Amino acid sequence: MTAVMELPLLPELLSLPRPAGWSGLRAQAEQALEGQGWPSTRMETWKYTDLAALRQLPVRPGGARTVDIGAMILPEARGSRLVFVNGRFDPHRSNTCNLPAGVRMLSLAAASEMARELGSLAGVQADPFANLNSARFQDGAVVIVPRGVAVEAPLHVLFVNDQPEAESAAGLGATLPRLLVVLESGASATLVEEYRGSGPGLTCAVTEVLLRADANLEHERIQREAPQAFHFSHLAVRVARDARYACRTIAFGGRLSRSTPHVVLAEPGAQVVLDGLALLGDAQVADTHSFIDHLVPHCTSRQTHKTIADDAALVVFNGIIYVRKDAQGTDAQQQCRGLLLSPRARVDAKPQLEIYADDVKCAHGAAIGQLDPEAMFYLQSRGLRPALARNLLTYAFASDLLAGVLVPSLRRQLRQTVLARTNAENLESLS
Amino acid sequence: MLSIRNLTARIGDNDVLKGIDLDVKAGEVHAIMGPNGSGKSTLGKVLAGHPAYEVTGGQVLFDGRDLFTLAADERARAGIFLGFQHPIEVPGVSNASFLRLAYNKKAEADGREELDPLEFDDFIQEKIRRVKMDATFLDRSLNEGFSGGEKKRNEILQMCVLEPRLAILDELDSGLDIDALRVLGEAVTGLMNPERALLVITHFPRILETIHPDQVHVLFAGRIVRTGGMELALELESRGYDWLKAEATVSGRA
Fold first, then answer.
1. What is the ipTM of this complex?
2. pTM of the model
3. Residues of chain A contacting B83 with CB distance shorter than 8 Å
4. For residue A171, how far is the Cα from the chain centroid?
């Protein structure tokens, strides 16, 4: 980088005393942060995502709160839920009574030795927000599924950032959620990692997922924080031999959100599906910088990223699929599709294949545009007014990706949100 | 019901319709035949209000109203239905939901009761029997992954649900096997009554064996060059279109 030293990143948080545990990881992260400071739009990976608004806001650690999570409960995960409010484990709203023998869902504070893998995937990062998390996270969740165990009920990890509006003058309430997920050989599970919030919040999250051989994880990552919130989340995944990792990241909330999934196909036969959906309006910004790393031969990856931008929203997608020299027989596909609903909305999409092996099957594409006029005409020819036809097609564009959500109550909730966000009140029957 | 006078239309710089005159009365079935590129599909799309086609002249009255003052969706609610040659796939919206939405929009326009999902479920069962559609197609996304024939079946199902006064069917027969063609032909015929009319656009006379037309028109180079009865369709089957092309060219020079 340049010799120009950036101002230190969020000193309000970094100057807090170092929490107990993981001192090695924290020391490394602190050291990395010393040279990092605030990212600027002069950096390639931050070119379109301007943090100027965030830099002007004061930040403070989010205080302790109690939150009514009634509307956030997924009935399917009634006995397999961990809840964190403003970075603190909430044992009264968590419930893990319905876990098969040997399956662990714990707060990090209670996990001790079981969380020894923490930091092994997301150690020092290029992303300073991830390093900030490593340096100062207070608590977090650990999920461990032992060898050969198939967990029926979805595992729900809910991180709430709840900040009182009244204190917005005091700045953004910050939380640093941390999540470690380990599926041992042949284990399978569905994980819902969800970020909710209200009021002016700042979330810097890091999630690590370790899938051993033949493991199978369906991972839903849902970000529906408050409209004035800032959200940064880094995801680091390692997929071992013949294991399958399917992840869907859905972003509705936040004034500015950035997701940086980094998925390594580490052993032959690994399969990855990394899908994303961002549905934005007003002046929201959602940035995805993904990296899918094909290290070894005969792995498969599929990535579909869909975005809908209305009003003056900005969507940034930069997806790198990296196929290393030894990764012969790689089968990788990447699709980025964006829908612009307003002349002021913008999508900056950069699908990227970097291939260093010669025997591979790779394809990528990006299609950004308006609704298909032929589809509009088709619906209008059936008597739907233009506004309704437009809403229906917008809903359909998003809903298509939601069809794969395996938890029925979550799928319904998400579809309701999409219905509401596409102004499709007379489409309620469609959900 | 439908009165077309000297209709001309183009897409881009291409003049496709060059003066169409046609009268369709309630209770009548008309067939529009003609070779590829003669303007048959364009006529259907212009009548349904496709925005890519520009009407450059002439007049069309539907029940005495100037059709071109109505947008595509208004025409549909007024009772015009276009069965597409290539129906559009809409992933993410279930066929049943879409059918109910379309039905309720039409019902609203007609001042009839809208149907809730349970009522509609009863209503649709009889319709899918009529077109012999497997009920699983109701839960699938609209036309997504349907074969050509299944899409056509779905078009006729939509027609059965909407019960249009004027249905324009564009190449219903393409992609259909003989049995499916008979089933759908019978479904279409079953919807006919003295209040309704049908305009069937086709290359091949076979469909006309189940949908008996009152009149057969041959369209060539944007004009109707001949009108007759079923015997004209059969003559086209045995002789092809070339003799008509030759005739049209000669009369065009005269």
1. 0.95
2. 0.85
3. none
4. 24
